[in-house]
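Hello forum,

I keep getting stuck at the same step: I have a sequence, I want structure tokens, and every attempt I make locally crashes halfway through. Rather than fight my setup again tonight, could one of you with a working pipeline run this one for me? It's a single chain of 94 residues.
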Amino acid sequence: MKHRMLSLGALIAVIGSATAYGVLAQGTPPPTPPPTGSKHEAHPEMTKARKQLQNAKATLQKAAKDYSGHRVKAMDLIDQAIKEIDAGIASDKS
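Reply #2:
Ran it on my machine without issues. Output:
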């Protein structure tokens, strides 16, 4: 019984060493490049927000009513928001 336990312990040690060596030998995998044909976008949230604002402005421009000047004011505020997004992207030095 003692001999079997020592054999089992030695077998576990060998398997554990081989597994550890295999993992360490692999090293760190290289970074996965972005898919071919796509650009890495530095500011995806800001860009998405800009597109959404542009879509909102286009929707407001198609509105049939003026809503007592609020539609035009909303479009002006959208233009200001787009300028702020552009300034924010331009200010990022990373």
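The helical segments are 2-26, 44-61, 70-91. If your local run keeps crashing, start a new thread with the error log.
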